[in-house]
Amino acid sequence: MKYLFILPVTLALLLCTTQCKTSKPQEEAFIENVLPIEKEIADSDFGEIETIPSFPGGEKARIKFLNDNLKYPPEAKKWKVEGAPIVGFVVDADGTLVNIKIRRSSGIPLLDEEVLRVTEKMPKWVPAKDKDGRGIPVPFTMRIGFKMKKD
Prior knowledge:
This protein is of the alpha+beta class. The chain has a single domain, classed as TonB (TolA/TonB C-terminal domain), CATH 3.30.2420.10. Helix content is 30%, strand content 25%. The radius of gyration is 17 Å and the shape is elongated.
């Protein structure tokens, strides 16, 4: 998604009660889907896709999960570094996420590691289905950005 979203409210409240005078968070994260990657799907043995994979509960639930679990790494905040790694994985035929890896690094290992950590925590997804209703593995990527709030 190209919409900005705010890190978990609890993190924001904690940061603000200890460090700031307003109720606004000190940093923001954003998510963008980068899939389907049509070339990647076409070049694979995934079969004909009838429905694409989805996070259980839909897009709002995925955003909430990421909101609740992403943490701006303290060292990255300290040095005011920003970046937007792209994480890729395959949603397997049973919904398990496999082959999770950074597809394009942010150039900041701390941010890349945080994205990997949270992606690995994700529950099973609703798998993609072929025209016969069987689950099929499909690649998925998403961009997760970290941006410091400008004063």
